[in-house]
Structure formats: structure tokens, C-alpha cells
């Protein structure tokens, strides 16, 4: 295919824009797709036209070229920026390059100098893009994000999410990542018997680079013997406060397309970091137990989820540690909350406790236990392998 370099010119001088346009008019492989009179217009045009190259003046009204360069870089917009400066703007050029510009030309520039700069930057960045695309084309995966959530602590979120991750990895052979967003007291790493070399605390310091190159995220993940990749929670509770909702969003974005299943453990309740994870999720497994406080909190929590516009399809209710002989029947639970129960996991303290204390997931070392069997069924539903029937009884039977 013939090369066609799409260019946006940003300069407040109409004369300059026209001169450049006239130059490119002679070049078959270069096409002007837009002209901006200031930085703001430039950013807008870049969003709309997705050019290959942006020729950016420094001094412009409303928003200068350096700020516009920063915005284009910060927002991760497509397009390589070439700065057009006048003599004596060395400091500004340095700033612009630090802000993400790829090259610069000094006015008044010659025709050849300008055209060469455009082609040179385009060729280099295209080669990079091609390389990157080949890597990601192989890896590009449609990710399913699954969060395990509850409005009451100790209902079994971590037990479920760790076993679900291992079960998905074992049964599907696909790529599974497990993120511990119980930021103060996360115990995913302990449950999976993993030595924490790096945690989310180290990762967020590198988030800017990860945003640019998502493969860097891998350096912060721990590897479980099942193949599941784990991002551990901070080792100390006081470090939780440094992790923001924005970090959570960027982190999930970096993992999207790299993992088939991105599983998330949460802390109880609606913190802004948790809501960010829930927003990004395709499925929310809402865990509850058959006791009055849990039912009351689950009812309130489900109402909050409605206000967050999460669909009934997205929110799946799982009752854990279930035993009807403790006084509350499944039917009572269902009518109190007016929702279907997606899955019931039986109460089995011995199996769950022994497996955690041995550091071996139930689904690989105690497969015969009822808890493991139900979790396996859940993972099959999530992987689209089991015929998932609607309604309480079908889930239990
Ligand atoms: N099906 C089950 N039967 C019996 N005990 C269970 C079951 N599932 C989990 N438990 C036990 O319940 C306790 C809490 O489990 P877990 O840590 O998984 O809950 P959590 O919701 O992650 O808690 P937290 O809110 O503290 O993060 C643990 O002692 C665990 O062994
Ligand atoms: Mg937990």
C-alpha cells in the first residue's frame, strides 16, 4: 500500500499554515488533514482526525504548543509531534521534547528540512507501531473482568476469587490475572502461598510508563504455580491510601487485552477504588451469607448498585457458607432481596481452612469437596462452558 502521511498543522499565523500547506501540496505522500490556530484546537483536531504527524508551533494564544503537546501525550492520543520553534527557544524546545514531542524544526526552515522531518518521524514511529502491533496482535485478547464484592466482611470473597482464578486457569488454559484490591488487608498472596517481591505499592510508582507500554505491568505480577498472575495488595495497610481510583483504572486498562480473565478481589463496601473496579467489570460476583446482618447489607448494597446503573445481568449473587439448617432458607433469602441466587456454596469450614493453611487451593487439592465442585461450576459458567440456567433451584442442584 502506498504511504500516506496524515498531518495536522497548528500555528496561529495563517500565513505560516498556508506556506506549509503549499509545501505539502507538492508531496504526494503527505496530506494535510486539519489546521489549528491554537493549542486547544490542535488537541481537538488530533482527537477527531487521528493524524500521523502534528506540526506544532510553540507560541500560540489560549493554549500554547507545549501545553497542547502535554495534553496529547497525557491523553495517549495518536500522532507524533514535531515542534516548530523560532531561534532562541531552546528552553521551550527542551520542555516540548520532555512533554512528548518527537522532533523539532527551527523557523525559518527549508522545504526539504520540513519534509524530511515529517517522513523521518513517521517512518521511525511506524516501525515502532508495527513492532508493537505484531506483539499485541498475537496477544490481543478480549478480556473478561470479574470482581468479587460484598457489603459485609468475612463472607468468603478471597476464598472464592483465589479458587476461581486457579480453576479458570486449570480448566480453560487461558491467561488469568488476579488483582488484590483489598488495599489495606489484602490476603490473596498469603492464600496462594506467594512470596511478595512486588505489590501494587511498587507498581503505582511506575504507572506513567505502564500507561505508555502496558507490557511493563508484567514486572509487578507474581506467578502462582497454576499459571495465575497475581498483583498483591500493599504489604502495609498505611500504603493503601496512596493507591487512587485513577491508578486502579489505568491498571485495569493496561491488563485489558493481555489477559482473558482479570479477576479482582475487593474490600468490603463502596470505596472509590472499589467502585472504579466495579465500573470496569463485566461481571460482579456479589457475595452474601445466610444471616440477618448480611441480608440487610446485601439489600442496601444491591440498591446502591441499581443507582450505579449496574444491570441485573452484570451483578450475580452468590451465597457462601450456606446451610439452611442455620435458620434461614434460600427461598426466604430470595424473597427478602427479590433477586435470583446465582450459586450457593456450602458451609465447609474444615475443607476451606485446611486448604488455606496448607497454601493449596481447594480446586486443585480438594477437588472432591462440595465447595470446590461449586467453584468449578462457577468457573465453567464464567468461561461459557456450562449451560447456565436461570433461577435458584437450578443453581443449587
Ligand atoms: N464455604 C465456606 N465454608 C466455611 N468457611 C468458609 C467458606 N468460605 C470461606 N470461609 C471462611 O470464612 C472466613 C472468611 O473468608 P475470606 O477471607 O475468604 O472472606 P473475605 O470476604 O475475603 O473476608 P474480608 O472481608 O476480611 O476480606 C475464612 O476463615 C474462610 O476460611
Ligand atoms: Mg478478603
Question: What does this protein look like?
Answer:
The chain has helices at residues 14-25, 39-49, 65-74, 90-98, 111-139, 157-172, 188-191, 200-205, 207-212, 245-255, 272-280, 292-307, 330-337, 349-358, 362-365, 370-382, 392-396, and strands at 5-10, 30-36, 53-57, 80-86, 103-107, 144-149, 176-181, 222-223, 229-231, 261-266, 283-289, 315-322, 343-346. The radius of gyration is 27 Å and the shape is elongated. Strand 12 (315-322), helix 13 (330-337) and strand 13 form a beta-alpha-beta unit. It has 397 residues and is an alpha/beta fold. The strands form 2 sheets. The protein has an 8-stranded mixed β-sheet with strand order 8-9-7-10-6-11-12-13, with helices on both faces. A 5-stranded parallel β-sheet has the order 2-1-3-4-5, with helices on both faces. It folds into 2 domains: 5-137, 3-Layer(aba) Sandwich (Rossmann fold), CATH 3.40.50; 142-396, P-loop containing nucleotide triphosphate hydrolases (Rossmann fold), CATH 3.40.50. The structure holds adenosine-5'-triphosphate and magnesium ion. Magnesium ion binds next to helix 6. Residues 157-158, 182, 187, 265 line the site of magnesium ion.
